[in-house]
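@channel sequence for tomorrow's demo:
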Amino acid sequence: MEDLKQKIIRDILSRCSAWATIEQRQLIESAVVLALADMKVEKEETALSTEFAEPNESYVRTFITIKAIKGLSPKTLHAYKYDIERFLEFIQKPVPTITTNDVRYYLAKRMQDGCTNVTVDNTRRYLKSFFETLHKEKLIQDNPVSYIDEIKKEKKVREPFSEDEMEALRDACETERDRAIVETLFSTCCRVGELVSMDRGKIKDDTIVVHGKGNKERTVYLNAKAKRALEKYLAARTDTNEALFVSERKPCARLTESAIETIVRELGQRAGVANCHPHRFRRTAATVALNRGMPIDQVSQMLGHEKLTTTQIYAKTNTEDVRHNHRKYLA
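structure tokens (generated this afternoon):
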């Protein structure tokens, strides 16, 4: 009996450790010891029998189904499933019996194995969502990850392309398709997945409808350079594929995300621009729009963000603009 009481005390103190001082924890411990002194503590048998226990695969399948109904992309669902199954294979315990310490041990082991804080925190987020969903569905009694704080990670400044780099990329385009991809990525602020899903029949004057995250439909805009580049590219095509961007060889299939990434990476190599990838055009467009005075709520809508805080991550404030406005407002 005494062991169970000590376990309760240790568990309470562990949960308080994130916010309580040493003195506060000592007071809490004394109060709990006194409260349990005259009580008989017995362990309740809550584990399911082997005959009726749900296999872990069933919990994972339920979770993925719930997320799929919410509209998460196949790529995101695959990331969730991979990390969760990897964790369960490592822990080797039924889902309802997994504890906070099990999760902490797994995350610590991944860090020990050389994973970055960013990678480990992504795993923490996936596991938190998994257990949180099962708890809401009343499939488990508690979410063991709810007591684990976000893992601190180094914040790297993700640089947009400079004006010189953008011009160098334009100059390095060898085909009408290359130029159309560059101008469309910049003008529409689209993710690479949105770009490959574009259909030429969806272009209406200076707009085009795309399907974003969660299969949400939104309208994006084509500036004069993008419109002209697309007109020249489409005029040169002889195929009948409805896809906006297709392979140059027959059967002229719709380009994949990896194909677009390869095209952009090779374009960067020819232009002498390091770290060239499709998402950087999106960040560049957001930064340019904000620096030129576009309201952040409109930039957020343009990017297809639900939260303004996400938009702020994409935007890099120009240091010279800060210096200029400091002199202007604080002189």
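heads up for whoever presents: The first helix runs from residue 2 to 16.
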